[in-house]
Specification:
Blueprint (H helix, E strand, L loop, with lengths): L3 H32 L1 H6 L3 H6 L1 H19 L6 H14 L3 H19 L5 H29 L5 E12 L2 E8 L13 E7 L5 E10 L6 E6 L10 H9 L5 E4 L16 E6 L3 H14 L5 E7 L8 H10 L3 E7 L8 E2 L14 E5 L2 H13 L7 E4 L5 H6 L1
Parallel strand pairs: 7-8, 7-11, 8-9, 9-10, 11-12
Antiparallel strand pairs: 1-2, 1-6, 2-5, 3-4, 3-6, 4-5
Helix pairs in contact: 1-4, 1-6, 1-7, 5-7, 6-7, 9-10
Length: 395
């Protein structure tokens, strides 16, 4: 994959580049948005930019990709590439935009590292970039071809349901009256809205169920910034979008999908709004005749904040061998536990495949507990809402 000469140069310079990546990506985004302000207005998440999380995710993915090329020269990190490609395809990222990113990223590298960026160093990192970019371009093209149809399609809000004080479910049907394509439980769609300042911002929401053959369903949590900006799109959807309104949606994307036969034991763990893909998975399992044990784990602040609780409980009850384990930080009812998710007393069947969705601290904790219980690392799958800072934390 990486040429021998470039591999030696990247290995020698990775510590310096890695140490400067956060500064490099900060300068990169500043230069990119100064030259192409429409990208910030209409493609990139302005909230993530303000909070710095997109910068951390980009730095983590670059470092992880480069390290993988050095440590496993005969392999490509397909799992990481697929995750990024699904995100990009759902956002409508184009092949041409990779050239724009290359221009500003390498200007930032040269600006931060100065004379250390010799022609040899530049050529080696250029090779790393285009290996990653061309792989992503190919996967994204294939994903779009598989789904077919336009990148964006109008959907009418058929029903709006208040789940909790901060979560609303939207059930949508195609405004053009056309067919609804199948999706895999665990996938998400991108939603594009026009905000009051004219920006066309995009956010991704898990499909939280399949309420009918001609409907899609998303459940949106209103994001409170807690020191960072409030969620622009989530607040817009809560405050302004009612039954009869029209939203622009992408087709379904995402690589966190159930990949298990009817006899594979499963563990589905969520916290907070991470429940959304899990309820879709439970509905699929109940409808497909899954026979093996299913352990369902969820943590929340209280029963009042537990979105889709009725679906969570009813779909679990429809499975022949399933158990629901609930933890609430406060007001735990009979049958639930108080505090954070603790799997010490939860039985986990041999050969269990686990799917996790929720805040990163929750997923790291549950992953560690499952590894201690003997679940194989290859059988642990996760979904991150927003930039994938799991990678950033591993680099």
């Amino acid at each position: 994959m990486l040429s021998e000469q470039s591999a030696a140069t990247v290995r020698a310079t990775l510590p310096a580049v890695g140490a400067a990546l956060d500064t490099i990506t900060e300068r990169f985004y500043a230069g990119l948005f100064e030259a192409h302000p429409a990208l910030l207005r209409d493609l990139f998440n302005r909230g993530n930019q303000a909070a710095g999380t997109q910068r951390q995710a980009l730095a983590g993915s670059i470092a992880a990709f480069a390290a993988h090329l050095l440590d496993h020269p005969e392999q490509r990190p397909d799992a990481m590439l697929r995750r990024i490609a699904h995100k990009h395809a759902s956002l409508g990222v184009t092949a041409e935009q990779y050239g724009i990113v290359h221009e500003h990223l390498f200007a930032a590298i040269a600006g931060v590292l100065g004379e250390a960026v010799t022609p040899e160093v530049a050529a080696a990192w250029d090779e790393v970039y285009w290996l990653m970019a061309n792989a992503l371009i190919a996967v994204e093209r294939r994903l779009r071809e598989e789904r077919g149809g336009p990148a964006w399609r109008p959907w009418e809000v058929a029903e709006r349901v208040t789940e909790t004080a901060d979560v609303v479910t939207f059930r949508l049907r195609p405004a053009d009256g056309g067919p609804v394509r199948d999706f895999s439980a665990g996938q998400y769609v991108s939603v594009r809205v026009t905000l009051p300042d004219g920006a066309r911002q995009i956010r991704q929401y898990s499909l939280s169920g399949a309420p009918g053959p001609d409907l899609r369903q998303i459940s949106v949590k209103r994001v409170h910034g807690d020191g960072a900006p409030d969620g622009e799109v989530s607040h817009h959807l809560h405050a302004r979008v009612q039954e009869g309104d029209v939203l622009e949606l992408s087709e379904a994307y995402g690589d966190l999908v159930l990949d298990a036969g009817p006899d594979t034991p499963l563990l589905l763990a969520s916290a907070g709004i991470g429940v959304t893909p899990i309820t879709a998975m439970l509905a699929h399992l109940a409808g497909s005749g899954h026979r093996a044990p299913v352990t369902v784990v969820h943590g929340d602040r209280s029963p009042a904040t537990h979105a889709l609780r009725a679906d969570h409980e009813s779909w679990t009850a429809k499975l022949p061998d399933a158990a629901l384990h609930l933890w609430y930080e406060q007001d735990a009812p009979a049958g639930a536990r108080t505090g954070l998710v603790d799997l010490a007393e939860v039985p986990v069947a041999p050969g269990t495949r686990a799917y996790l969705c929720g805040p990163l601290p929750f997923m790291r904790s549950v992953r560690a507990q499952l590894l201690a219980k003997g679940v194989a690392p290859a059988d642990l799958h996760y979904e991150v809402f927003g930039p994938d800072l799991w990678l950033a934390g591993q680099s």
